[in-house]
């Protein structure tokens, strides 16, 4: 059987695509994607005996619901909606329509993606792998501090020497908005710092001084975020962990999640992370909920029973 020839885009849609290319400099990939999205919309509208020039809000809402029905992700639906909104604004601006039926359409709720988290065993393996590397203990110290204090990577690499010179039980961190916060240090982190201070002093040339805990001869004067991220990927490989799963922020996530697993209260974790809003910290409770749900599904004896059909 011969396939029915594909129905071309409407003149209005073709004009819109041409505008994207000529006025906005859209790439071929972008115009092709927009064209495919509009083609799908017009095919749906045609089944309702409608076209872009006479489609109403109800028809557009029905189209968006159809995308949800076939299992399209909220993020993809949001992208389709963005194309629709731009298209109908174009029709209104070109006076091809007297109204904009897409102006009152609601965006789908995207939700907030759960942060990636390493297990405690994986963190231990990561730190142990960094100890085996011949970097004079610098990387192990960086990881011990990062995991013990949940610092942002920018806070970690710019730590001043003065913050640790007296072997403190707590670390004073200057974070976003130049705000200071105090974070308790674990014993392993403190021991790693003490060992690193001896190595650090020996590594500096005679008369050379640096105000940073992790000095560098580069332009910034301290270890850069990019270099630390690179070293972290190397440590992940050495530890047998997929480097794609590891980043400085993932270790910050691990710090928060593991504290909550251990019974820490949300307010304390918020203060240690330096979050201005506790709602930001609450995302980690969702990670914990997911882990508990998976634990019940995998380990609970009743979960293994086959459910009998009702009746």
UniProtKB/TrEMBL annotation:
Entry annotated with the keyword Iron: no
Function: Site-specific tyrosine recombinase, which acts by catalyzing the cutting and rejoining of the recombining DNA molecules. The XerC-XerD complex is essential to convert dimers of the bacterial chromosome into monomers to permit their segregation at cell division. It also contributes to the segregational stability of plasmids.
Domain Tyr recombinase: 113-297
Quaternary organization: Forms a cyclic heterotetrameric complex composed of two molecules of XerC and two molecules of XerD.
InterPro entries noted in UniProt: CB, DNA_brk_join_enz, Integrase-like_cat_sf, Integrase_catalytic, Integrase_recombinase_N, Integrase_SAM-like_N, Recomb_XerD, Tyrosine_recombinase_XerC/XerD
Catalytic machinery residues: 152, 176, 249, 252, 275, 284 (o-(3'-phospho-dna)-tyrosine intermediate)
PANTHER family: PHAGE INTEGRASE-RELATED, TYROSINE RECOMBINASE XERD
Record keywords: Cell cycle, Cell division, Chromosome partition, Cytoplasm, DNA integration, DNA recombination, DNA-binding
Protein's name according to its UniProt entry: Tyrosine recombinase XerD
GO molecular function, one term: DNA binding
Residue ranges annotated for the Core-binding (CB) domain, each copy included: 7-92
An annotated GO cellular component: cytoplasm
Main location: cytoplasm
Localization per record: Cytoplasm
Cross-referenced Pfam families: Phage_int_SAM_1 (PF02899), Phage_integrase (PF00589)
Origin: domain of life: Bacteria
Family designation: Belongs to the 'phage' integrase family. XerD subfamily.
């Amino acid at each position: 059987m011969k396939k029915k020839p594909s129905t071309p885009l409407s003149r209005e849609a073709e004009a819109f695509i041409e505008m994207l290319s000529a006025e906005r400099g859209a790439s071929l990939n972008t115009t092709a994607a927009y064209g495919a999205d509009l083609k799908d919309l017009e095919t749906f509208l045609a089944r309702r005996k409608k076209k872009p020039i006479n489609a109403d809000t109800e028809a557009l809402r029905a189209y968006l619901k159809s995308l949800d029905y076939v299992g399209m992700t909220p993020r993809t639906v949001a992208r389709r909606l963005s194309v629709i909104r731009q298209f109908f604004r174009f029709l209104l601006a070109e006076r091809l329509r007297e109204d904009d039926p897409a102006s009152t359409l609601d965006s789908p709720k995207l939700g907030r993606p759960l942060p990636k988290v390493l297990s405690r065993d994986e963190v231990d393996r990561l730190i142990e792998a960094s100890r085996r590397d011949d970097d004079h203990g610098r990387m192990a110290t960086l990881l011990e501090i990062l995991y013990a204090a949940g610092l942002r990577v920018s806070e970690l690499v710019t730590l001043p020497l003065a913050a640790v010179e007296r072997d403190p039980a707590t670390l004073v961190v200057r974070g976003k908005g130049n705000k200071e916060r105090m974070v308790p240090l674990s014993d392993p982190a403190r021991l790693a710092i003490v060992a690193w201070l001896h190595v650090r002093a020996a590594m500096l040339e005679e008369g050379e001084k640096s105000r940073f805990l992790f000095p560098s001869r580069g332009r910034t004067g301290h270890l850069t975020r990019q270099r630390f991220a690179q070293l972290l990927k190397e440590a992940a490989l050495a530890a047998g962990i997929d480097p794609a799963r590891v980043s400085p922020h993932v270790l910050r996530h691990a710090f928060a999640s593991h504290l909550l697993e251990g019974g820490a209260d949300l307010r304390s974790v918020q203060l240690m992370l330096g979050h201005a809003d506790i709602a930001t910290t609450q995302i980690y409770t969702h990670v914990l909920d997911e882990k508990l749900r998976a634990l019940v599904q995998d380990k609970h004896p009743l979960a293994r029973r086959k459910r009998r059909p009702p009746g």
